[in-house]
């Protein structure tokens, strides 16, 4: 492979010159094949036959109702059952069998929106989210018209094969049309969404999220190829997720002590473990507010927040199964003092 090919390949990538990129890649693949590395040659050829070869983040999308979402490389801890479903989504899209509409449903904080970001990142696509503040309008009939304009932007979007469209909390537009408590205007909006989904460009990949799956119009649910339930965390799943979050956050606090066993025990003794979104916030705040002179202060704060208490009573901690050593860490009281006071009580 010549140095000139590498330079030209990089230039083609940054200039979004897809044809030039493919031509150079084909030439490189041929050279590897002639050198006897047929496997690498086949891999390169397979990659450039995918329309998503050029990184799409360099593409700019100027639309009225769609906003680009920033993607990052942070890990997303998920239960295996949900992670397997996300892998299935990626496989379905790559197989190009006309399956491209997915509904993520579940309680707040279960990772629906973050999962949509990860799907877009793994597919090497831009994620565009619908700005409902611009769609929903108080004027009679205007919301339905705006919905039509949203889908018109989607259907006529250049490089549609390089994006994922996100309707985050789509229940704002698709509540049950038969619900008497729902205003008639939103019923019209729901009907408009149904109509547009039926006629959406088949190349469009759409992910919608909702916290109110049971309230969605049944006809709306049927418009999606697959519904992914995010309410499938066992207690052990939540503990594993919390540990992953803690390990990532601890890297920013070199002075903090590590006692993963005690951290997991705090979670196990909790009456109800929060969803990942809330866990992430509790862990972050506990570390942020912790005393830099006490390396384990964040664990005490985490326990208090998780159990909604302001005090760490020695007898209460003992009744929950914490050892003398663990109580000493949580209360910052010497073990000998903890042992003596518990005996006195």
Automatic annotation (TrEMBL):
Coiled coil (UniProt feature): none
Alphabetically ordered keywords of this record: ATP-binding, Nucleotide-binding
Matches recorded under Gene3D superfamilies: P-loop containing nucleotide triphosphate hydrolases
UniProt similarity note: Belongs to the AAA ATPase family.
InterPro entries from the UniProt entry: 26S_Proteasome_ATPase, AAA+_ATPase, ATPase_AAA_core, P-loop_NTPase
Boundaries of every AAA+ ATPase domain copy: 98-234
Name of one Pfam family that matches: AAA
Entry superkingdom: Bacteria
Name of the protein: AAA family ATPase
SUPFAM superfamilies, per database record: P-loop containing nucleoside triphosphate hydrolases
